[in-house]
Amino acid sequence: MTTSDDRIDADDRIAGGAPLDAPRLVREQGVSAPLGFRAAGIAAGIKASGKEDLALVFNEGPDYAAAGVFTRNQVKAAPVLWSQQVLTTGRLRAVILNSGGANACTGPGGFQDTHATAEAVAEALSNWGTETGAVEVAVCSTGLIGDRLPMDKVFAGVTEIVHEMGGGLSGGTDAAYAIMTTDTVPKQVALHHPQGWNVGGMGKGAGMLAPSLATMLCVLTTDARASAEQLDTALRRATALTFDRLDVDGATSTNDTVLLLSSGASQIPVDQADLDAAVLAVCDDLAAQLMADAEGVTKRVTITVAGARTEDDAITIARTVARDSLVKTALFGSDPNWGRVLAAVGIAPVTIDPDRISVSFNGNAVCIDGAGAPGAREVDLSGTDIAVRIELGLGESSGSIRTTDLSHAYVEENSAYSS
Amino acid sequence: MTTSDDRIDADDRIAGGAPLDAPRLVREQGVSAPLGFRAAGIAAGIKASGKEDLALVFNEGPDYAAAGVFTRNQVKAAPVLWSQQVLTTGRLRAVILNSGGANACTGPGGFQDTHATAEAVAEALSNWGTETGAVEVAVCSTGLIGDRLPMDKVFAGVTEIVHEMGGGLSGGTDAAYAIMTTDTVPKQVALHHPQGWNVGGMGKGAGMLAPSLATMLCVLTTDARASAEQLDTALRRATALTFDRLDVDGATSTNDTVLLLSSGASQIPVDQADLDAAVLAVCDDLAAQLMADAEGVTKRVTITVAGARTEDDAITIARTVARDSLVKTALFGSDPNWGRVLAAVGIAPVTIDPDRISVSFNGNAVCIDGAGAPGAREVDLSGTDIAVRIELGLGESSGSIRTTDLSHAYVEENSAYSS
Fold this sequence. Notes:
The structure is a homodimer of 419-residue chains. By secondary structure, chain A is α+β, with helices and mostly antiparallel strands. Helix content of chain A is 32%, strand content 21%.
């Protein structure tokens, strides 16, 4: 995995430059880049704004293996409960996604709405010529918690969207647009493997990003031949290292869902290691896109903890610092107030030695062995990217968390969301 | 203990109105209200602004029993390390406090500065006629982390302040002013017990308020006759129910210190239960004052969790909600976005049943059994005080956390603190 700095400015990667025998990431493409997948995105009238709000990802086969990772929030939205249930089969033909409403905390009626949506998609796909059951359709929703969806619009949209599934790449891009909420740009990427198979992905999520997963709907597709178990392994490894380490505001959504579907349409069987690496690269790129477009972001911050006894310790401390409001407001103010970093490290549930801690901001030492370094107050943090590195001096393990600053725009956007 | 609403508007209490046989709280008085205590506050030049920055609380005896509670942050400021050490004797004659610098993360030199300050206070008091050792002097500091204190100014200030210790109440008020940082008002209160003994207290803390204690220097005094063990018991019980349940931004300072000194000057021995109740009342009032003056506060919020299996469960969930940036920004926007409360409850490390949760804002039901209540989006939260009540439906225990909203002013104040 490359560093986050490399990820953020991936334009040179898109332009090419990777050796021909290395996997290549392309951000103009998404879920419909792999063979055997169609996608579409339309405006179904779920959002009051009239913007795109319904997306479909359809697997034409010949394989239908699938895996999913879901929010660890105990309060799970109806579509999460539904999709977890259907995923026990290890098999999916389609994913229907809506923005404009989370369908969370909507009671038994909300669950019936999700079920009816899956039935409607199955029926529309069957009418279109592909015999499909509701149990083969995952459902994802995002938006305000607590309101029922306008089901008349959802049903009409489902009928329409099946006819919009053009082949080619544009369907994937349309789908990426249709799942946006407070996102300002769509997020997608495709990986082309030199062995001839591909992985595509799209994601959304701009607030509530956090510990378990970002808020976050994410659909990944591949045309490699892979079993449901292979997909599950690759997906869990990748999300643990990417979305789980993106922590914008410590909140975990009721709706977080990451799905990986395989069509096998390339006819190429894939090694677990190759699949793991490819899914990780796609998730890592999407995580960087999510960070860059987080609500109110003015700084893209990477907190790295090194010299820890274990990687878990490093991640726990990095996450504590990444969630500290006083650290995040200081970074918003481009203020090299390293004392707040030390205070945050000190409340992490990991035993540390305060006199061994050293901290640098963008490579400039600001604290050495627990006390201020010369010139620490003059370090220039006016740029967009800030790398905070914390050396504990206790061991050999390290880990990083991606986060953002806490800005006026974050407060603004989140104080007027539902009204 | 009364409700926080009662606490916030304590003016009627100050005016009197409590029955003559009940303890009476008076906010015009503080640490020098009990017999046997003198206090002073001066401008020693530690703060660049020239404002008051040095305070002294002096115990004239005949008893010198004392107890203390300190930050749970592993990164402890030099004055915390010093005061913890001297408190092992259970005895204090004086507390010297400075604002304008935390003396945290200042290495061995910073600890020597604290030690030298205690020595200087002991010498000045001895010259003044009260033989005192440095080991009888606690030291508290507050301000920016990471810088050494200007010791020439501290030493000159110590010499001066000993001569400023007038008797009477004004010294305590001066001391309360001198420990302010971003506080906008001094915080003090005194309790007069019908048995004839008194408890006084002052506190400061406006940001970094949190889990272990608020940032927070707090000195309490009493003229009741009480042993160090009695004081320790009363102080631990009171802080656990008050300062430990005030959580403005989840951060815990390197400098948090709460001290309780007894002069015994009333000659009245005190029951543990009476002392516990009095110290609790004073701490509760100071905690309400700290909340009301927290950095950037526009809403005073009480999160109450009821129907929990245990009080610990209730407090854990209330704290998780109190720290949730999305809940706090919604409240800043007077937005009854109850879905964010449910999402926050769902990530607390306590097993809950999402379908049994009910939530009310200021007594208006917004969520019943995990789904929206009629009219939930129209609840008016435009007032200053917001009571969030969460019923879990799992047991009989409850608990409350005091917090604030997350406002533009919080971001503003904390993004430009050290510069």
